[in-house]
Amino acid sequence: MEPGYSEEKFKQHIRTVVTAAEGDSLEERPLTLDELKELALSMGMRDDEWEALQKKAFVHLQLAEDHLKARNFEQAIQEAEQATSINPYIPNGNSVLAKSYQMLWLEDNETSAGEKAEYYARKELLTDPNDKVAINVLSAINKKKKLGGKDKKAIKKYLMIGGGAVLLVIILMVLFNQGEQSAASNELENQLIEAQEDVFSKLDLVETAIDQRNAMLPDLFGVVSNESSDLSALNREIDNLQNKIDEVSGSAKFELEQKLDEQIGEAKLLVQKYGQPESVERLMIQIEGAENRIAFEKKNYNDAVKSYNILVKKSKGAYPDYELESYYNAD
Prior knowledge:
- The chain contains twelve helices and no strands.
- It is mostly helical.
- Helix 3 runs antiparallel to helix 4 (73-86), helix 6 runs antiparallel to helix 7 and helix 8 (177-214) runs antiparallel to helix 12 (277-315).
């Protein structure tokens, strides 16, 4: 091997070549995989090192797909970028990037994520015109763009209609003030009922997500054959916390669940320290996916609690059966 060769230097060179080949010049074209191999060999890489590097690309892609399934979208992007930096033609590499960026776009509504999702989807279709993931990503993006365009065109119309509606409401309030007050009271009670039910349903989703994560804990401790005393103590503490959680509700339960999360975090660190990496990595991805789902459902629950608590305060005690609900602490 020549002394100037390094894997990172080679991957950076591939990125430079591919970026240049995506320019507007008609004379430029992307290098084929065989030509990339020749380039690597010319830089001092051996045949067996090339093959090992390609296998490494598939390992990165498999981890990216696992992260995507577990809703760890940023980690999925990182692993997929590692795979495509080694082999720009790796099957499904760009479609995994497209899908991951699309999911980030749907969660955060960031324009840049949507643009990247569209870019990688089109890039995948250049090599595989029948790739269903890329086709679905482009279809979803185009639909959302069309809906957004229609919304903008309708703003002026809605403003005019809204202005007329506001004027009509003011007239009705003047004419039927007493009747409106009674209707508003009934409406507030109906809103309280609906908001409270929404809080309960969102709480059920949080508890379901937590139960799914907790169901993985025996597997977490099981990957370490010779448990350390620290890990055994944590296992007992986690069991005790789960028993206590079953006996309480409200803010007391939320506090105990926060302590449980902290204990599980310590257990994960010890398992990573004592367990075999090949046994631990995939399980950690699954647990992280479950914890992402818990955080997502907690946010939805807190949003529902905020809406409900505002209505309770607006009622000024007129409906004593409805009391303020507790929030989950932010993770």
